[in-house]
From TrEMBL:
Belongs to the NADP-dependent oxidoreductase L4BD family. The lineage of its organism: Eukaryota, Metazoa, Ecdysozoa, Arthropoda, Hexapoda. Keywords: Acetylation, Cytoplasm, Fatty acid metabolism, Hydroxylation, Lipid metabolism, NADP, Oxidoreductase, Phosphoprotein, Prostaglandin metabolism. This is Prostaglandin reductase 1. Its EC number is 1.3.1.48, 1.3.1.74. Monomer or homodimer. GO terms for molecular function: 15-oxoprostaglandin 13-reductase [NAD(P)+] activity; 2-alkenal reductase [NAD(P)H] activity. It catalyses: 6-trans-leukotriene B4 + NADP(+) = 12-oxo-(5S)-hydroxy-(6E,8E,10E,14Z)-eicosatetraenoate + NADPH + H(+); leukotriene B4 + NADP(+) = 12-oxo-leukotriene B4 + NADPH + H(+); 13,14-dihydro-15-oxo-PGF2alpha + NADP(+) = 15-oxoprostaglandin F2alpha + NADPH + H(+); 4-hydroxynonanal + NADP(+) = (E)-4-hydroxynon-2-enal + NADPH + H(+). It is an enzyme of class 1 (oxidoreductase). InterPro entries: ADH-like_C (IPR013149), ADH_N_2 (IPR041694), ER (IPR020843), GroES-like_sf (IPR011032), MDR_fam (IPR045010), NAD(P)-bd_dom_sf (IPR036291), PTGR1 (IPR014190). The keyword Nucleus does not apply. Gene3D superfamilies: Medium-chain alcohol dehydrogenases, catalytic domain (3.90.180.10), NAD(P)-binding Rossmann-like Domain (3.40.50.720). One of its GO terms (biological process) is prostaglandin metabolic process.
Length: 334
């Protein structure tokens, strides 16, 4: 029998998740059935969507998320012992991977990362990378020479979106939450301009940085920041709504308020589209192949915010919600 530990959510989050909303449970894994495998976890992803999706489940439930594990026991010929698997079984140090058909929960073999770090399989060459690739290219449909704005620009998704926009010949403006992130975006990733949204007047900053208006907006944050950006979009502008991290910790019974946008959407014929990346689940390998090539050629740079230790998962998660990470936040399970 394999002994395992997992994080169980005892109650739905109210505001910022609290440590005692979780319980670490030690238990023995049951015998696996045909088609299943047992993995020893190596890397776990912590992402803002974990907070957003929390209210969709009734406690107690196992904390979900993407992770990478090595198969140590198998009853599935396609997943032999020793192979690495990307799955959605979440915050556990060992777990049983079942072959779900649900696009978001469907496990798959870790892509051939060439010589890149294994952890990239839950970052740039995982769900966040696919989110940036398809959300930007398929929803925004950028054209060379256009102006693109990205919020949450120093995060796992936003940092890749901005770099893809540069690869496609766009002018890129990013908004992030610290001066250090702004410097990283401009000096390392090649953003044309970046701003700390906490210390600038967003409207004035955009008027100066994008005097001809904004064509594409990749929205990770929602709220008033997004309203101010959308007000300055050009006719036939496109908005890809990826997330609303500015409101995730708000009271779900009280809708957050932001400037009404209908007038601007109508007059400028702006298309706003929300998306979930599982829409393109069958096409993820195409995105991964291209992203790996961009990384290998130096066109796309990856930065990780690594936390070590299974017992540090909560701290890493809350840190992401507070904007402490630059790039992709991952936890190495010792």
């Amino acid at each position: 029998m394999v002994k395992a530990r997992k994080y169980v959510v005892k109650r739905n989050f109210q505001g910022v998740p609290k440590r005692d909303d979780f319980e670490i449970v030690e238990y023995e894994l049951p015998p696996i059935k045909d088609g299943e495998v047992i993995v020893k976890t190596e890397w776990i992803s912590v992402d803002p969507y974990l907070r957003s999706f929390n209210s969709m489940y009734n406690p107690p439930f196992d904390q979900f998320s993407f992770q990478i594990g090595e198969v140590i026991e198998s009853k599935n010929s396609e997943y032999p012992v020793g192979i690495k698997v990307v799955s959605h079984i979440g915050w556990c140090d060992h777990g049983i991977v079942k072959m779900f058909d649900d696009p978001l929960r469907r496990p798959y073999k870790l892509p051939d990362l060439k010589k890149l770090p294994t952890s990239y399989g839950i970052g740039a060459v995982g769900m966040p990378g696919a989110t940036a690739y398809f959300g930007f290219l398929e929803v925004c449909k950028p054209k060379s020479g256009e102006t693109v704005v990205v919020t949450g620009a120093a995060g796992a998704v936003g940092s890749i979106v901005g770099q893809i926009a540069k690869i496609k010949g766009c002018r890129v403006i990013g908004f992030a939450g610290t001066d250090a992130k702004v410097k990283w975006l401009e000096n390392e990733l090649g953003f044309d301009k970046a701003f700390n949204y906490k210390t600038v007047d967003i409207t004035k900053a955009l008027e100066e940085a994008a005097p001809k208006g904004v064509d594409c907006y990749f929205d990770n944050v929602g709220g008033e920041v997004s309203s101010r950006i959308i007000k300055q979009m050009n006719t036939f502008g496109r908005v890809a709504c990826c997330g609303s991290i500015s409101t995730y910790n708000d009271d779900p019974d009280k809708m957050s308020k932001a400037t009404v946008l209908q007038q601007y959407l109508v007059m400028n014929q702006i298309r706003v589209e929300g998306f979930i990346v599982s829409r393109w689940a069958n096409e993820w390998p195409k995105a991964f192949d291209q992203i790996i090539k961009w990384i290998e050629t130096g066109q796309l740079k990856v930065r990780e915010h690594i936390t070590e230790g299974f017992d540090k998962l909560y701290d890493a998660f809350v840190g992401v919600l507070a904007g402490e990470n630059i790039g992709k936040a991952v936890v190495k399970v010792n």
